[in-house]
Structures are given as structure tokens and as C-alpha cells.
């Protein structure tokens, strides 16, 4: 989605849903290359870029052990780290990842 900004630039919002069950990670690498090229192109054009969605990656190595669990992490889980992003881009992690949202009908509790 593309939204005009008062300064004549655009806010580019990209929603991603990357592959998950990708033996060897070839598809995810290709997807990261594609989305990175779009991000860089828009940024170099002077636009603002936000990418969100389901990356089907653990967002940083710390997320592999962040939540207590007894299950083995599947071999297809990949880690998305800062080094995989284009220059001048930063991965922003939620500040409320210690909390979970519970939905009870039409009420949501954090």
C-alpha cells in the first residue's frame, strides 16, 4: 500500500507472508532478496518503508529461546537477523512480547 505524505514522499507499507516449510531455505532466501530489493528501491526513491506480516522466521536468535517450552524447535525454523536486512533498515521487535492477549468474546485483555 502506498500513502502520500505531506512532504511529497510516500509511506510504503508492505505486508509479507513468507514460506515456512522450505527445506534448505532456498525459497525464503529468494523471498528475502525480493523484498529487500523492493525496500531498497523505495527507500532510495526517498520514500518511507514499513514491512510487516508473517515472516515465518524467528525474529532474532533470542526468540529461539525466549519462550519456555519443552518442544524441539523444528528444523525448518529460520532466524531473521539484522544482517539479512538491507543497509539503513532496522528490525523492530515488540516491546510487549512478555505479555499475551487473551480474547474473551468481545473483550481483549493484555
Concise overview:
With 110 residues, this protein is an alpha/beta fold. The chain has one domain (2-109). The protein is built from 1 helix and 7 strands, in the order E-E-H-E-E-E-E-E.
Structure commentary:
It is a single chain. This protein is α/β, with parallel strands linked by helices and 110 residues long. It has one domain. 17% of the residues lie in helices and 27% in strands. The protein has one helix and seven strands; from the N terminus they run ββαβββββ. It has one helix spanning 26-44, and strands at residues 2-4, 10-17, 48-54, 57-59, 78-80, 102-104, 107-109. It has a three-stranded mixed sheet with strand order 1-2-3, with helices on one face. Strands 4-5 form a two-stranded parallel sheet. Strands 6-7 form a two-stranded antiparallel sheet. The longest helix has 19 residues, at 26-44. The mean pLDDT is 79.
